[in-house]
Amino acid sequence: MSAKIPKPTALAKPVQLPERIANVEQVRSVRTPISLNYDFIPGQAAQAYLTAFGEKRILGQRSPVDGAVFVPPRGVDPRFGVATTEYVELPDKGHIGSFCVTQVPIPGRDDLELPYISAWIFLDGADIGFIGLVGECDTADCRIGMRVEAVWKDDDQIAQTAENIKWWRPTGEPDVAFDQAGGRGFAARQAARADGTGHASQPNSANPASQ
Amino acid sequence: MSANATGSEASSAGESASTTADGRLRADLVLEYPFNRTTGEIIGAFLTGLREGVIYGVRTSDGSIMAPPTDYDPNTAEPLTELVEVGPAGEVKSWTWCAEPRRQQPWNHPFAWALIRLDGAHTHMLHAVRVASPAEMRIGMRVEPKWNAERQGHICDIAYFEPVAG
Fold it and tell me: Which of residues 20-39 of A touch B (CB under 8 A)?
């Protein structure tokens, strides 16, 4: 069937340009940048995190409810609305929970060589992802469950900022099983806890490196 | 392949880190969206006009002139096609005093924002009026645009409005 679709006449009328602008180059687009300028003073948990990060240590916080470990720490378990006060030091190794290969440039980030991989890195012992770039790895080889480790900047460039880790590179260790990787692993541990068979005090225990 | 990349979270443009008087970390943080907006024909013509030093409105289905123009009629949603030159002078219909200008506003000294009905138009256009004090502003006053010498097709091609002398 080929029902005749009426042409939207509403869009068919041409704009009549006044003579004065009819023969000049037409404006087709306009730059309208929007910027928000913050005076950023981190809260207690982020202060502690950044201070440790400036010493190449990674701090998380443990939930008092079920032992889940958040990194970077925010001072709260957002699921239950309770404060988190116990700090946990995490290793600079983990696995890829999910990732994205980016093929198009971002304005203002000419330093990112295309294509690049950004990923949620699940540090050993953490229950949520930690965002970072994946390097020293072909995009075709990147996969969920792949074990990675941090590549830090040179010591004289380490500061109390979020930018101390250049990227995460594959370690070559055996992968974390797909259904135990990233958020799936967290869901599996939650289910195990609900069954009474899990080990709430050992989050992310599915990692080979922590067994 | 090797990644050649740094950083992970916020843009570091203009970033300056330090500590507060009581020893807490602080930093300037700029969150910026570099929008490049496609104008469409009518607003494109309006901006082309500004670059050429002329202000265009558009005739709506009831015959009135909207300036600045829109692509579609606000009452009937019909596409609008007839551009009409307006102004350049006009009348202040409403105004407010900006006593503490912020970054990216036209000046770092106080000025007025005004809704200006350009001659020939039936609607109002927002722009800055350069006067020394709010005592010089009143509804009904005549103002005219001061154009930038170098224009690029942007509302800021009109640098500001100022009271019509005499």
Answer: 20-21, 24-39
Tell me which amino acid residue B103 is: R
- Nearest Cα residue in chain B from A111: B5
Residues 36-65 of B with CB under 8 A from A: 36-39, 41-42, 44-45, 47-49, 51-52, 54, 56
Listed in sequence order, the residues at least 6 apart from A29 whose beta carbon sits closer than 8 Å to its beta carbon are: B36, B37, B38, B39
pLDDT at residue number A10:
58
Return the domain boundaries, chain B. Answer: 41-163
Co-location of A192 and A98 in the same domain: yes
Q: Give a yes or no: residue A19 inside a domain.
A: no
Among B124, B122, B162, B121, residue whose Cα is nearest residue B144: B162
Give pLDDT < 70 ranges for chain B.
1-16, 166
Q: Which domain range does residue A195 map to?
A: 93-199
Same domain assignment for residues A99 and A75: no
- Whether A134 has its CB under 8 Å from any CB of chain B: the answer is yes
Regarding whether A81 and A99 lie in a shared domain, the answer is no
Residues in chain B closer than 8 A to A42 (CB atoms): 24-25
The answer on pLDDT for A201 being more than 80 is no
Is residue A29, in this structure, part of any structural domain at all?
A: no
Report the alpha-carbon distance of residue B32 to residue B27 in Å, rounded. 16
Number of folded domains that form chain A? 2
Q: What is the ipTM of this complex?
A: 0.75
From A147, A165, A167, select the one nearest A157 (Cα to Cα).
A165
Query: Please, how many CA atoms are within 13 Å of residue B159, restricted to the half-sphere of its CB?
Result: 8
Could you tell me if A79 and A109 lie in one domain?
Answer: no
- What's the pLDDT score for residue B1? 30
Q: What is the pLDDT of residues A17-71, one digit of tens each?
A: 899 999 999 999 998 888 888 898 999 999 999 999 999 999 999 999 999 999 9
Flag if B36 and A37 touch (Cβ within 8 Å): no
* Cβ-nearest to A20 among B36, B52, B79: B52
